[in-house]
TrEMBL record:
Top-level enzyme category: transferase
UniProt-recorded name of the protein: Nucleoside diphosphate kinase
Molecular function (Gene Ontology), one example: nucleoside diphosphate kinase activity
Entry keywords, A to Z: ATP-binding, Kinase, Nucleotide-binding, Transferase
Transmembrane segments: none
Enzyme Commission number(s) from the entry: 2.7.4.6
């Protein structure tokens, strides 16, 4: 029983996953969501929005001194994104693996970027790189009442031991 309670807490890790404007324009929203659903992760928040420049500059604040920062922001404001929170065991690390490397040349085939993208500046998706970044990004993109903390007995019993 203690074991199962402990595991359930570990299974509540959350990551901020976002489909960038190129992913939306190219009609990849459903395919990307499907990968996380089929893997066994739980969708707890989702919205489409056209983010402001200021909102994106804050999201990518750690990259503000990079030479590609202005073009990154222009790319990200160019259209709507789909912002999501996915939950489950090791979702932050697993989400990064499912996305693939930042540069699609290094993204393994089978990953989202490895299957659908060619250049770093059009790499389709975002995923938090640590649990701390995930917490910061989730709070930046979602209000607390936009996150749905629901119990899923099927996932509890059949995705986890
Ligand atoms: P990520 O966590 O894998 O998304 O990579 P980073 O946090 O390092 O960078 C954020 C985003 O900035 C990437 O996903 C790319 O869209 C973009 N980016 C990163 N490095 C470069 C680069 O060298 N050139 C261009 N054009 N964009 C970049
Ligand atoms: Mg990053």
């Amino acid at each position: 029983r203690i074991h199962s309670i402990f595991c359930r807490m570990a299974n509540n890790e959350r990551s901020f996953i976002m489909i960038k404007p190129d992913g939306v324009h190219r009609g990849l929203v459903g395919k990307i969501i499907q990968r996380f659903e089929e893997r066994g992760y739980k969708l707890v928040a989702l919205k489409q929005m056209t983010a402001s420049k200021a909102h994106l500059e804050e999201h990518y604040i750690d990259l503000k001194d990079k030479p590609f920062f202005p073009s990154l922001i222009n790319y990200m404001v160019s259209g709507p994104v789909v912002a999501m929170v996915w939950q489950g065991l090791d979702i932050v690390k697993q989400g990064r693996a499912m996305l693939g490397a930042t540069n699609p040349l290094a993204s393994a085939p089978g990953s989202i970027r490895g299957d659908y993208s060619i250049q770093t500046g059009r790499n389709i998706c975002h995923g938090s790189d640590s649990v701390d970044s995930a917490n910061r990004e989730i709070a930046h993109w979602f209000k607390a009442d936009e996150i749905n903390d629901y119990n899923s007995p099927f996932i509890n019993s059949w995705v986890y031991e």
